[in-house]
Structure formats: structure tokens, C-alpha cells
Design goal:
It is a single chain. The chain is built from 2 helices and 8 strands; from the N terminus they run αβββββββαβ. The protein is of the alpha+beta class. It folds into 2 domains: 29 residues; 147 residues, Alpha-Beta Complex (Phosphatidylethanolamine-binding Protein). The strands form 2 sheets. It has a 5-stranded mixed β-sheet, with helices on one face. The longest helix is centred in the N-terminal third of the chain and has 22 residues. It is globular, with a radius of gyration of 20 Å.
């Protein structure tokens, strides 16, 4: 009987904290799995193989998505070199990806809207660091809406349109060094 005296208040505290975390959007409601973006070509924090860079065919790497939040209506993807000499360099923007589209094959022709890169091209632009090792962040966003954007959309435009609509996000980081 004495143990119940402690268990009930502890359970009430845990419930209250969980409720507050969901209410404050620290833990997204209706989200039971971990939202993950991965690649069979490289591990998180691993080296991106040259075939997906300017030293190869500059094709997009294979990507896999799991744990999409139940409240998501679409997905968006950005790929950014955060170590570029003149500031972040956008290598890919894509949005209105259906939530049930969980696999992208290497070099796949995308049927989803794609914006322009920092090189002013549409679609995927493979890593091509001028010197040293650069980090490339593949960031996948789960959104509560579809976006109405044109093909000249930049990463900044996409980020502004997503503001207030991000249910969850996940990152995959790859490194590349030109030898």
C-alpha cells in the first residue's frame, strides 16, 4: 500500500510533463516513430561516393524515408553545403513530395517540383568543393500542407513558404573531399 502512495503521484507527474511537451510542440502529436532520412550510398556523417558528385556523374544519391509523421501532408527536401566559401550553397530543393513516397533511386528523374540551386540550375547539383572537406546536409521536412511554388524557387523562398507548416524534420549529413 505504501508503494502506491509514491507511484500515483509519479505517474501523474509523468503524464503532466508528457502533455505539456506535446502541447508546446516539443514532441509532435500523433508521431510515434522516429522520422529518418538515410542513404544506402553513405552513412550519416560518412563520405559521399564520387559518382554523386561533380567528379562522377553528378546523379542524385539513393535516399530512403521512414517514420513520416501521421499529420504530414507532404515532404520537402533541401541539400546544402554549409562549408562553401561564400556561405551556404544550395545543391537541391524539392517539395510536394507525397508522404507515401519513401524511396528515391540513384539518378531518378523526379516528378516533384524542384527549385534552383545556388549555381542557378534546376534539380540536383552534385557536391564539388573547391578545397578541403565539405559537409552536405540533406534536410527532409514533413509539412502539414502542399506548397504553391514555381520552378524558379530558391531555398530561401522554400524556407519562407514552409514557415509555420513544419511538422517535423530530419537530416542526413554527408562529407566530400576532392582529391
Amino acid at each position: 500500500m505504501k508503494s502506491l502512495v509514491y507511484v500515483i503521484p509519479i505517474a501523474a507527474i509523468i503524464f503532466t510533463i508528457s502533455f505539456l511537451l506535446v502541447r508546446e510542440n516539443v514532441i509532435p502529436a500523433g508521431h510515434n516513430q522516429t522520422f529518418v532520412l538515410s542513404s544506402s550510398a553513405f552513412e550519416n556523417n560518412g563520405t559521399i561516393p564520387s559518382q554523386y558528385t561533380c567528379d562522377g556523374n553528378s546523379i542524385s544519391p539513393p535516399l530512403a524515408i521512414s517514420g513520416v509523421p501521421q499529420t504530414a501532408k507532404s515532404l520537402a527536401l533541401t541539400v546544402v553545403d554549409v562549408d562553401a566559401p561564400k556561405g551556404p550553397f544550395t545543391h537541391w530543393t524539392m517539395w510536394n513530395i507525397p508522404i507515401n513516397n519513401t524511396t528515391f533511386y540513384a539518378g531518378e528523374d523526379m516528378m516533384f517540383p524542384q527549385g534552383i540551386t545556388s549555381a542557378r540550375t534546376n534539380g540536383y547539383k552534385g557536391p564539388c568543393p573547391p578545397s578541403g572537406t565539405h559537409r552536405y546536409f540533406f534536410t527532409l521536412y514533413a509539412l502539414d500542407t502542399l506548397l504553391n511554388l514555381g520552378q524558379n524557387t530558391t531555398r530561401n523562398d522554400l524556407e519562407q513558404a514552409m514557415n509555420g507548416h513544419i511538422v517535423d524534420k530530419t537530416e542526413l549529413m554527408g562529407r566530400y573531399f576532392r582529391s
